[in-house]
Amino acid sequence: MVNFKVSRGANSLSGNAAAPEVSQDGEYVNKKMLKENEDAVSLKVVALEKLGLTRMTYDCLLPTGAFASLSAVSENTTPTMNTFCFFTLEKHSDVVLKGVRAANFDIALKENEVAIVKDLRINAHLGEDVVHSFLPFVSPGPEKMDILHDIIIEVRPLDNDNRDSESVARATVDAKDIEKTAQTRFEGRFVSIGEVFAFEALGLKARIVETNSLPIEERVGIKYHCFRGIVDVAETTVFYIQTAPRDEEILKVLNARSPPNEEDMFVKNFVHVHTNDEEVFPVHMNVLRPCVALTKFIRSAASQSNVSCSVDIESVIFDRVLLFLTCIRDKEKPPNYDLRLTESLAGAAKALHCAPLLDYCNTRLGSYISRLREYTWEEIMRKNNEEQAVLLVIDYMVLDVKNWLPEHPGGDMIIPAQSLNKDASTHFELYHSSKESFLYLKHFYVGEICEEDRERIPKSDALPSREFLKMLRDYCEDFRIPVESKAKKKQFF
Fold it and tell me: Where are the domains of the chain?
């Protein structure tokens, strides 16, 4: 049986319930909204262009109280925040607004209002005469608050939305005029991909297609992504202008500079890695350094163009390998991959001879036994002489270079012939004068010679230089394990 109940409320037929809470301006605000907006500033949006201002060199005007609230001081606040503030919608918007005090322009603005220019009302989906909640925009950090290097802008006629292209006269615009207008309009504010602006003096719409904080030759990180940034005329020197494809017949842009071809940045210092399912990954040589099996290709990429190699790894797995290697390069925590992928990643690590990835996989699988430990001198000699290992000792560090031998620029025989079963520090200094060789030490490192056996290691006739040893120890101190004497260990236990 349906239980019918009479509705009760301020607007119900019975009308005998308590009236809802009302805000100071008479607008109804429910308790849920009040809770959500506890730390936000609620302001009614008004059209800035209706206030009689002639120049639009600002995005929004704020009353004194709201300006103070949206200029929240933080450790990342820039020195210019005393003259303007950056703020954004509390929810559902990527647009960053730049606000100045309305009092600076002798504009009478109510304390619960914010005046916003039409372009940004559209971009942020803000309704005129509608109350919205705003928060101060706090950048993740000064290093993340990127000044844009270049912007790609797509333009089309301002009044061409509802007209047939055949009925519109062909227009010609100089790209230099578009760039000047863009510089004036965007100076000192954030621009985001997808924002659209009206350049009314030129009769154009301008859409932000791409933003870049780095020049093309530096956009080499797999994690590089620039969604928005600040325009600084002194540094944002390049505005690439292109016509919207559907308007190419009716709009011609003169003196337009085309964006650089991204394929050009993958010519040198990149290895084109072909996976076994016919995918190709252009990867910077610095990312691939822990992959000993690819060493000869890495070295070639430093001086040659279009270096390529093949790996017996699926593209999906190799993509995850690259994310891991990028984290290692940037000294960040590796991704927490699902255990179901770990065996596949371990197989990729073995194929690439990538020790850090293999250690990671072993840890994830719960079967990890650290390869970093102390070795006796007898153990080193036994492994080299009887087990066909290739363990080098350099400044008491133990390095497993067996997988390195086929890739060694000096050939696979020189190390076993000259450097085994002795202190190879002098040989390493003699044949590896560049710091590039130091980059591989961490990936070969497996431990240390125990303190009691260090005097037993045969030395070369010529000792390594003090300068070399200092440079070597400074570079390796972050990953070398501490070594204690047996006396200290007994005392500890």
Answer: 31-136, 150-260, 267-365, 373-490
